[in-house]
From TrEMBL, chains A, B, C:
Protein name: M20/M25/M40 family metallo-hydrolase
Short name of one Pfam family: Peptidase_M42
GO terms, biological process: proteolysis
Keywords from the named record: Aminopeptidase, Hydrolase, Metal-binding, Protease
GO molecular function: aminopeptidase activity; metal ion binding
Family matches, as SUPFAM superfamilies: Zn-dependent exopeptidases (SSF53187)
Length: 303, 303, 303
């Protein structure tokens, strides 16, 4: 497994405090872009909050990858409030940092309320993440936050060969969103797009299994336009890359904010499926991940 | 009853795949507009996805009518997932089409989950609609999808006499929306509006009954501005056209997306009430429908 | 307590019908602005619906204060439907006005449904408010609608000294919002901002108590950006003004619409805490209110 992926998995960037990931990406892109096929324009800084935009060539589409993760806020009297939808299990280890120093503690469940067991009070509003633990074998990677470190990884691999297109690193996706609207406004004013692919990780279910290929989502809580799905499916079929079709009635992604944006932009979620969703033991097939990378490269050349 | 209405009722256009209705409307408008009082500019195509916009004269307002319907997506293992909020009843007949051909099946309920009974697997993500069955007598029309074929019908009747105003055919209304934002942006950049009427069908309740006139909604989940409601009510009273006042605490329409748009646009939902909402047997008084058509013509001249 | 605050508390402006408050503010601002340090540009009228915008100097930020209140709509058969989230208690007195004259009635609860006891039918869709009753002693003010009359009061006190910044009086906040998007669009086209403070009233809880200072909210249902919170906290600390830190998992404000706007604008909710939230007996510490006024003046000079 590449060093890049391991590096990505070690960075904390809970929704609201994504800047450690932004900083990492800026540095990585700076170091690596000379080896990329096309040199992108890179946009970041206070006008983009903690987001990052890369423009390659003459874009007609974009790939969105969220850089935030689920986690917890500390409240009063050792209470924990979720950020996004983490699985809240007795004993899960959390880490963070407040004005008094580093924090490592466990979740204590009491009457369905969550508390931490840190021996001192933690500053109010401190953001805590799952402690990271990465396991890789021949078939699988298992770690916290594969959702959406793998989506970021996919984007960075795509950057190596991308000729035309935006790559957008968004924030707050796990907690209701809010960055996609201003990213889309900037994109629309700079080089408008017709479509967006959502580079994110989905669920293993009775219909979507490990090793069966990258999942193309035909719907989640929201429904992409059939005409666009048909175009994607026809290209996916043509590519020969293993893929599987997902149909869900719930769940959302940055696609939601594209659907409700003031621009007529088609969208589709495409990503490897994971087991143990939103736990510290998210698990993805390495083969599915490779299919994801391959399909994005194929599609972004042809859509 | 007019052939137009029957034609409209026979077209399938579940949210996400409204293009059959768009195609019908384009053809209908093309054939009929020479007989209209004012020739509109007609906007459609990929920049509007499956929506359609007509601009008559110098608009200060718009009428919105959604062209999508509720329905179902097929999932895995014969499961059905709702699109919008259909009533899910044992034995309801559904139709559709996948790669292997036409589909006609029934809903089977099992432990509150919905399945189809089609003898073969249906392609994942296939969109299914209620089978249509139209009954008309002297007083009522009964059919699937009166919501919102009657709203479209109302708009097309309005087009015959409209001198100034936008007519907007929107998509995705039954499933959370998403087209109104880009339609409003286009409208605002082309010929901005101060108000919008929502041409849609509402509910028969203890306060809103068949044959008592078109319903003017004073609120649903959202609340129009009192100043605008007062203007509408004063014109409705002056018109002599039968109407009734609706007050609901839930439900929504394209009015919701106008309320939350970045433009200060007043809105009001005005439509005939129906019984058996979101079933294949929606039922509307023909008299109420005629009152709806008459009131829209009256209001769009004077607002 | 100032006459201004008493005047504000006596005005009815339920969501959807905020114009009485708008009219009061226009008149107040007209009379008083000559005494203000900087003369603002004042924007109102039909292009702003019932909102009001003041631009002081060269703004980089804004303060938002909502001018609507919770209340009730009358439905059929003496039913009441809530507007926003009022506490619905047996016997609470409500007032309003319909075509037949003034209304004063009580809430009757029956099987969890709310009715009024007015001896005649009330016009459908009439807006009712809590009857006002104001009590002030050395420590506390108690009245209906401190949320958000105190937020408005805070803004008007700020106006006396504000040199650079927008002050925005928004509508519909209690009932889902809808005015902030067009206010932000106007602001962005006229004099864009980097940040917004939400001048509103929050809750007394186990962690936020009367007399402990104005509450700075580190999160509610939504999460401001950590970088911006740190700037606020550092200025608050430096100011010497008493404040307390709030951390909630639910609740929202105009900050929500700023978060989801198409502009990269940081936001933070800062306001005195109240007891008996959304009842006719909301209660706030006068000291906390003064701290709120002082902190806004301090921050708006330095952010």
């Amino acid at each position: 497994m590449s060093k890049l992926l391991i590096d990505l998995l070690k960075i904390n960037s809970v929704s609201g405090n994504e800047s450690p990931m932004t900083d990492f990406l800026i540095e990585y892109i700076w170091k690596r872009k000379d080896h990329w096929k096309v040199q992108p324009e890179v946009y970041f800084g206070e006008d983009f909050h903690d987001c990052l935009l890369l423009k390659f060539g003459k874009p007609t589409g974009a790939v969105f990858s969220h850089i935030d993760t689920i986690g917890f806020s500390t409240r009063y009297e050792n209470q924990l409030i979720p950020i996004g939808g983490p699985e809240i299990e007795q004993g899960t280890r959390l880490i963070g940092h407040d004005s008094l120093g580093p924090i490592s503690c466990k979740i204590i469940l009491n009457d369905d309320f969550a508390f931490h067991d840190f021996p001192r009070a933690i500053d109010r509003g401190t953001l805590l993440s799952f402690e990271q633990s990465i396991t890789i074998d021949d078939e699988f990677i298992q770690a916290a936050y594969l959702d959406n470190r793998l989506g970021i990884y996919n984007c960075l691999k795509l950057c190596e060969e991308l000729e035309n297109g935006w790559v957008a690193f968004s924030t707050y996706e796990e907690h209701g969103g809010g960055s996609v609207p201003y990213l889309l406004r900037f994109i629309n004013e700079n080089a408008p797009i017709k479509f967006a692919l959502i580079s994110d990780i989905t669920w293993v279910t009775e219909g979507v299994q490990h090793h069966n290929g990258v999942a193309i989502s035909l719907r989640d809580k929201f429904i992409p336009r059939k005409k666009f799905l048909e175009k994607i499916l026809s290209l996916a079929e043509e590519s020969g890359i293993p893929y599987q079709l997902e149909v869900e009635g719930s769940g959302g992604s940055d696609g939601r904010e594209i659907q409700f944006s003031p621009y007529p932009i088609d969208w589709c979620f495409i990503g490897a499926p994971e087991d143990n969703v939103h736990t510290p033991q998210e698990k993805v097939s390495l083969k599915d991940l490779q299919n994801m990378v391959d399909l994005y490269k194929y599609l972004m050349k042809r859509l």
